[in-house]
Design brief:
The complex is a heterodimer. Helices cover 23% and strands 34% of the residues of chain A. Chain A has 8 helices and 20 strands. Chain A has helices at residues 48-56, 98-108, 113-126, 142-154, 172-189, 200-206, 224-229, 234-239; strands at 9-17, 23-32, 37-41, 63-68, 71-72, 84-86, 160-164, 192-197, 209-214, 217-222, 244-253, 258-262, 267-272, 281-286, 292-293, 302-313, 317-324, 327-335, 348-353, 358-361. The longest helix of chain A has 18 residues, at 172-189. Chain A is elongated. Chain B is an all-alpha fold. Chain B folds into 3 domains: 7-59, no CATH class; 66-195, no CATH class; 198-418, MetI-like fold, CATH 1.10.3720.10. Chain B has helices at 19-59, 64-69, 71-79, 90-105, 109-119, 124-134, 142-149, 156-166, 172-177, 198-229, 232-247, 250-261, 266-273, 289-313, 317-325, 330-358, 362-367, 375-384, 389-413, and strands spanning 180-182, 188-190. Classes of the chains: A alpha+beta, B mainly alpha. The A-B interface holds A 56-58, 77-85, 87-89, 91-95, 104-105, 108-109, 152-153, 156, 162 and B 316, 318-319, 321-330, 332-333, 336-337, 340-341.
């Protein structure tokens, strides 16, 4: 029925302003592939929810075009878009039972009662709540309400489901459980999902691709692994996962190596990512788990002396704060592996890392 | 607690006191404190609300006038079997005559005359003049003497009425309040047609209150919706506009309506000036039912807006959005998802407006004219003008019972827990 290679949703040059003075979304171009789980990730006020609302039809785009299945939908009202949606606080109709909530989209579509019954049963089984049909939403726990909300968004078989921070109100354990559950439902149904969250671990767990939003712009659009391993700019590096930042100035640069003089002291060999010229300011980004304490001689190009400032025992690893190159907030994750040398506070150690793990990014300060 | 057995051990605290008793003790203290906090209000309500209402309801059946002024006659009449037919025997005539003379000496005969007059219109002079005439007669036969003093003493109807008014407690006021009376044989009968006013009046009050309630819902719903959905700045302004009349004196507001609506008033002048109506066909919009309804809707509107607003304020816009995303048209989303959630507000507002409207007095009195009067105006009339407090109390008692019955009905249908005032 549709060309499977064609994106299900396209944002083309979309801009959005609420007050005519500030652009909340600045020139968004984004293709969402059919069957994809795409997460819009960003801090609050980054424009991600606005994009979702424009896609759902609750906010008009100020400029640009949004297409769904190749058809422009700028002027299609929300109820004709056929997009399922899960809201932040579930928005289950409190005066209706679970069954009536699920029947609502089907009755609107004038399905016959046998079909309605079949679909509701299927949807409730999908979210493992077949015995809750007669309850009111107020009689369900947060997790159960969440499942019903997911079932309701899927019961009319939309090809696209939007989720607006649906797990925000749940406690940590339940949230993780629901992440896997939603992920499995997505895999089983093959429906396209656009998911909005500010929780990076949620995004990494669930998504095929993640669009990192900041300041109304998509900072980076890539797979979770790519995003974590190869952040394209300082904001993404800072926002996704933990990250050591060293500010410095580029002293020498070629195709795949640059030499950076770190503010404070020391010279670091790094991988140039979005820096280009000598003398440019840069942020060096380095994951705490890619740093080695007391590396073997000659194994890595960057080795510095440091002082252990603080040790925090976290079970699977020991979080070590080290004073290196004049930065006293340098974090090293030391795996709790057998035979690993025990560290003591105030001890002097050697700290080293590979050139490839140290990415020279723009000098962007915020975040 | 000593019956604790191996399988059924009583839980105790560390010092061996049964847990349940200890819990009761600690809770008792909290309960006492809570009761202490509400005590002043409770006392206030008992003294200024429950007590006067109780007195008033008691007054609607209380009937002390005759039984206190003429105790011997009362005892004799109550013993007489009036339903057997015929006139009372000579000894009753004698006792009544002596009591009438005594009442005249005590100067209470006027009250007795008034009381009998309520029951049997036109019988005031029967008592006063008979008492005067009888005081000059020393000896019987009394039946003859009384019949001579006034021939009504020879009618069975008089004696039946006199027997009824002499009872210590009476349902007569309630009968009068529902347009019932006793016929010549002492049987219950409908009041003659030209004297039937109260049933019509009750029905009219009910109808007008319902109409006002519905009008308030229709007018308040959109403005409450606006207030609940607009940004704070605009909703505050709207709130002030709604409350502004609330802060103005009731009399000022009512008289403003007179200025606006009277035949030589602003509205009529405008319509004449625009040529909508001729100068000679000015519309009568006040001093009739129209005036009462318009002014009362205006006065009671805030009581509908406030509960509606507070309920709508709590309804997240995501419900309607969810309904739309599920495929419902905006109209359907409103009707199936938004409206049902506002029903508690409508219920609360309706109960407030209806109960206030059904007992409203001042506005109909000022702008109701002759046709726009409600039951409360007649209660006031009997309190202030005719001084028939018993009838006023009976009318008020029926009104109170009606409101309580409607409240009960509302609770059965909608459920009082579903009412939200804020």
């Amino acid at each position: 029925m549709y060309d499977n290679n064609e994106p299900i949703v396209r944002f083309i040059d979309v801009q959005k302003s609420y007050d005519g003075e500030v652009l909340v979304v600045k020139n968004l171009n984004l293709d969402i592939a059919r069957g994809e789980f795409l997460t819009m990730l960003g801090p609050s006020g980054s424009g991600k929810t606005t994009c979702l609302m424009m896609l759902a039809g609750f906010e008009p785009a100020t400029h640009g075009k949004i297409t769904l299945n190749g058809r422009p939908i700028n002027n299609v009202p929300p109820h004709k878009r056929g997009i399922g949606m899960v809201f932040q606080n579930y928005a289950l109709f409190p005066h209706m039972s679970v069954w009536e909530n699920l029947a609502f989209p089907l009755e609107v579509r004038r399905m016959d009662s046998a079909e309605v019954e079949r679909r509701i049963k299927r949807a409730l089984e999908m979210v493992q709540l077949p015995e809750m049909a007669g309850r009111r939403p107020g009689q369900l726990s947060g997790g159960q309400q969440q499942r019903v909300a997911v079932a309701r968004a899927l019961v009319f078989d939309p090809d696209l489901v939007l989720m607006d921070e649906p797990l925000g109100a749940l406690d940590k354990n339940l949230r993780e459980e629901m992440q896997y559950e939603i992920k499995h439902i997505h895999e089983n149904l093959g429906v396209s999902v656009v998911y909005v969250t500010h929780d990076q671990s949620e995004a990494l767990t669930m998504s095929n691709r993640i669009a990192v939003f900041n300041d109304g712009i998509v900072q980076q659009l890539s797979t979770p692994a790519e995003l974590y391993e190869r952040p394209q700019n300082a904001f993404v590096a800072q926002f996704i996962g933990e990250n050591n930042r060293l500010l410095g100035t580029i002293r020498a640069i070629d195709q795949d190596t640059c030499t950076v003089e770190v503010d404070g002291s020391g010279t670091v060999q790094a991988l140039p990512v979005n820096v280009s010229s000598n003398g440019e300011r840069t942020t060096l980004s380095l994951r705490p788990e890619r740093v080695t304490i007391n590396p073997p001689e000659g194994s890595v190009p960057n080795v510095f002396d440091g002082t252990v400032e603080e040790l925090i025992y976290l079970g699977d690893h020991i979080r070590t704060r080290v004073n290196v190159c004049g930065h006293d907030d340098f974090i090293v994750k030391v795996p709790n592996a057998s035979g690993h040398a025990a560290l003591a506070e105030k001890a002097t150690v050697k700290v080293g890392w590979d050139k490839e793990d140290c990415r020279a990014l723009d000098a962007h300060q915020s975040g | 607690m000593a019956e604790a057995t191996a399988g059924n051990t009583v839980l105790t605290t560390a010092d061996g006191v049964p847990l349940k008793r200890k819990l009761r003790q600690t809770q008792q203290q909290m309960k006492r404190r809570a009761f202490g906090l509400v005590l002043p209000l409770l006392a206030f309500i008992l003294i200024t609300f429950v007590w006067p209402i109780g007195l008033m309801v008691y007054r609607s059946i209380d009937n002390p006038t005759v039984s206190e002024s003429m105790p011997n006659a009362t005892a004799a009449l109550q013993a007489w079997d009036g339903s057997a037919g015929g006139l009372p025997p000579e000894e009753i005539y004698a006792i009544v005559a002596r009591d009438l003379v005594q009442a005249r000496k005590d100067k209470t005969v006027g009250k007795v005359a008034t009381r009998l007059n309520y029951e049997l219109p036109g019988s005031r002079s029967l008592i006063t003049s008979s008492a005067r005439k009888l005081s000059r007669i020393e000896e019987g036969p009394w039946k003859e003497a009384m019949t001579q003093a006034d021939k009504k003493w020879g009618e069975r109807q008089t004696w039946l009425a006199f027997q009824r008014v002499s009872a210590r407690y009476t349902l007569g006021y309630y009968l009068a309040a529902v347009d019932m009376t006793y016929d010549e044989d002492g049987k219950l009968a409908a009041q003659s047609e030209e004297r039937q006013i109260y049933v019509t009046l009750f029905l009219r009050t009910l109808w007008v209150s319902l109409f006002i309630t519905v009008a308030c819902i229709v007018l308040a719903y959109p403005i409450s919706y606006l207030m609940a959905t607009q940004p704070l700045r605009i909703s505050n302004l709207l709130m002030i506009l709604v409350l502004l009349p609330f802060w103005t004196s009731l009399l000022v507001r009512t008289t403003s309506w007179i200025v606006l609506l009277q035949t030589e008033g602003v509205l009529n002048d405008i319509m004449v000036a625009l040529g909508l109506i001729g100068d000679e066909n000015r519309v009568q919009m006040i001093y009739n039912m129209t005036g009462t309804i318009v002014a009362m809707v205006h006065i009671l509107l805030p009581f509908m807006v406030l509960p509606l607003f507070s309920v709508m304020k709590t309804i997240s816009p995501s419900y309607v959005r969810a309904a739309q995303s599920l495929g419902a048209t905006p109209a359907r989303a409103f009707w199936k998802v938004y409206f049902p959630q506002t029903v508690p507000g409508i219920g609360a507002g309706s109960i407030l407006v209806f109960i206030l409207a059904i007992g409203y007095y001042i506005t109909p009195a000022l702008v109701g004219g002759r046709t726009g009067q409600l039951i409360s105006n007649f209660i006031a009339f009997h309190m202030q003008k005719s001084l028939n407090w018993g009838l006023a109390a009976a009318l008020g008692g029926i009104l109170l019972a009606g409101v309580l019955a409607l409240y009960w009905l509302y609770n059965r249908i909608v459920g009082i827990d579903n009412m939200k005032l804020g």
